[in-house]
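Lay summary. Proteins are chains of building blocks that fold into shapes, and those shapes determine what they do. In this project we predict the shape from the chain. Here is one chain we studied, written as its sequence of building blocks.
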Amino acid sequence: MEDVKQYMQSVGKQARAASRLMAQADTNTKNRALLAIADAILHSSAALIAANSKDVAAAKTNGLDAASVDRLTLTEKTIKGMAEGLQQIAQLADPIGEISDMKFRPSGIQVGKMRVPLGVIGIIYESRPNVTADAAGLCLKSGNACILRGGSEALHSNQAIAACVHAGLKAAGLPETAVQVVNTTDRAAVGELITLTAYVDVIVPRGGKELIERISNEARIPVIKHLHGVCHVYIDDEADIGKAIRIADNAKTHRYGVCNAMETLLVNTNIAAKVLPELCKIYLDKGVELRGDDASRKLVSQMKVATEEDWHTEYLAPILSIRVVADLDAAIAHIDTYGSQHTDSIVTENYTKAMRFLREVDSSSVMVNASTRFADGFEYGLGAEIGISTDKIHARGPVGLEGLTSQKYIVLGNGQIRV
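And here is the predicted shape, written in a compact code that computers can read:
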């Protein structure tokens, strides 16, 4: 335990020193590093797959479920995707140093804001080795140093990707310690990382509910997080039925195991008989298990009975809960009671109702006549994302480059003194 503590203290100290150099790096240098990392990943494809095969073999031996093994596995396609992601980050505008809101004050001074890096970002994640490249790239472009702690099941893969990252940083003349991948599988390292208040400025957990709850409860450092995505689509009685069916189908069945998939469908009682039979046939044909309230089950007999727990549940699976509600007020009340402040959407042709939904639903993404699956950094034009935040302070919603920065006030004067 003492060795882990000393190791993490060393990692933190090196990250803090590197963060000062990263904050000074110009855009061209950061972009050179990103492109060099992408090249290193492409040229190391065979080595990455060889390292990953060790992790995959161990995962299968240890009985890791098929979905987790799939997330863990690197292929030529996913390796190419990592490189392309880094190349895309290099094409994004650099937020660092951006000055905004400059205004003259009566004293003659100018007051405005400048965007700056957060400093050192600790990222704790599971399974997906590609997060190592994504997180390194986003932190690098936003002028931060980072400490990456991947899951123990991906140790060889993450270390192999880290070698490519370090090669790219070195080629661009940036400190290799700007990106450090924790090289121990000891869980005590996580406990140390989330309490390194002297060296780490923010923690970003990416993974299952259990991981994020642990980090949120134990961290002594600010956390950018979301616990779960209980996302809703509300079909209003003034919805276009064809539009509503397309949106509700896509929101649930486009992909099941993602945080922006719809988990509960709310339907206005005045339109339920027109929408639910046709829509539920689509779900049933696709193998989606339906769980409904009494009013829903009267319209679609194949539904199971929805329990109180269902309204709170993020299934991440082909399961959907359905409730018929009296009106917009009832829909908003349901979302307020059971939602997770992630993403919620209304389907309606009534402008006033749409605006009410946007104002009154307290989620990080609120949509009108669009699938919840659009709650994504790429779809929002942010490029890659580090995750989605349901917090209200600092970053909210998909967290891209700007979410990994802060702002400071700047003042320009010409000899003014306060009297």
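What the prediction tells us: The chain has 15 helices and 16 strands.
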